[in-house]
Predict the structure.
Amino acid sequence: MKLFAGNKRWIASVPIALLLVFVLDRGYDTSAHSTYVVPSGPVAVATWSGRIDVDPSAGQSHVNDLAMNQNEAHILYGRVVPSGNSNIQPLYSVSSANNGINFDTPALRGCTQGTSSANIYPSARVVEDSQKYIFVVWLDFCINGSSNGPNLFFTSRTPGGTWRSGPVQMTSSVTKGASVAVANNGTIHISYSLYDGNASRLWYTKSTDRGATFSTPVALTSILPLGGSYITSVVADASNNPHVLYQWETNRGGNEYTSSMCALDYLSGGWTSPNCFYAKRSYWPDAASGANGVVGVTWQSRLHGIMYAHWDASNGWYGIVNVSRNISNPGGQEQLKQFPTLTYDHQGLAHFAWIESQGATLYLMYAAEEARGQFSAEYPVQGNFSYVPQLASYNNNLGLAYKQGDDYQGRKTYFRRIQLPTLTPTRTPTPGPTPTPCGQMFNDVPCNYWAFGYIRALNTPTLIMAGYTARETCINPPASVEPPCFIPRKNVTRAELTKVLYRARGWTPSTPSTPSFTDVGPSNWAYVYVETAFNRGVINGKSPAECAIQGQQSPCFLPNNPINRAEMAKTIYRAAQYNALIPASQTFSDIGLNHWAYVYIETLNSKSVMRGYNISSVCGSLALPCYLPNNNVPRDESAKAARLMILSP
């Protein structure tokens, strides 16, 4: 799960195609809206339990996390203790042996003096493995007298209820966020972010002996001036591989900054390069794993609301959808939907919860994992002054922990539970050929191809970067498949890029009577694309010397020449009309401050549209990270850049 973002344990389930939605009602009385109804197929109704105060003796408490496994439920929260002009919030835990019907006596887990990090939402995370071992990580200031904090701590509990004699201090410098997950094989995965006063860097460690020892921490991301990798959530897939989701911030100055949702996946024995698949001011990732090896993540977009994406071994990260689109602010205003959480139930249903506005109304929404982003209308269930929801489930038991109360009544931590009915799938198979599970469109771009999601997104529903249908093109190398094909490793030409940008940006065509270039006349297939891009100031022609070398008269464009990485950065920068994002020092060893494309490359890197390489086998003798500006750009990499340009503000 997450400290500042989360993970839920993997739950075997069968995906179904029914859609459900919950919304909590507008006040403290929850009796009027305490059921949920399946809106399609046979009607099924289930009833939420009453609201349980998990710590009646506490004046105020702030929930941090919830875990459920078999018949157990565990809640972490900060108990507010008035102290002078401020409150300290020591970390406490409560447990239930009957799915949250009642809880045991609260027990202190964090420090008892000073300022506990339990007031940072959320500052503690808990998971439970299949053997009922519990693992907790949290941020704290005052254990071991640490003043350079908060620091990250770890503790555990045996199935018999015995807690570790003392917590393990995991970090000794400022820790901004952390997350813990436990895999099917018992491996504990922990990701966290260390802050140096200017930027944060993401780290990872694991334990294969239930926390007795941990591996040497590995840095997953580099330091980025005035930015870095912050809030994180780690999750383990069905093959026990970890996936780290995180919030990547750049260009922080005043209130202006860009925050993207990014992923690092551990595959084939190593970590992938960072994959920043969504911008739009993205925050608070919460990851979970569900049926058939699918990993999901929900996050908050300040522009679009609550978002959701999937990962599986066939597709990578794909299927980005807006979960909260039925509950929206008018006129494209900044969305006040916050603190999303995600879990999967025993039938493959994905469950979401978040708060709406500063008020704060708590919403829940349910969707069939198999439906891939189809959501029904919402149904009301509970209330104002609700904050930081946490969802967890095991079998057909779904639990919700949250804090509720205004500043005058005092906010308390509450728990509610529901037993979900077993639902019968109602989907009728569509007659005709059976499509691939992921919607494969090209015979040389299978579902597990790294750029599958980007390529598919540029071909549906709007055609932006097409493939090939001519058999003679596809059956010969390098494709060597029956049509349709995409030929993903074929280099993109200068003319082809203008066509992609023309379609992606929706430009009005420009077709002057006199061509701007000697080698792109009105009869050339790319004439409208090249002329439109040129008249918009997006592209330039080649120099007289370059034209002469190619046997062309100046001014020429050389439409069939491949475009290199530096040229593509400049072209996308201009097409998207970005403002320059220039770091204090160079990011890439081969792109210095005096490089002609420095501004374009650094800006696209900051926006996660075109990144460099952090792999020695790629950079060769160059120091890491490198950019390789003169390398040509294959069609798959171009598809990724175009897709991310569309998503990036």
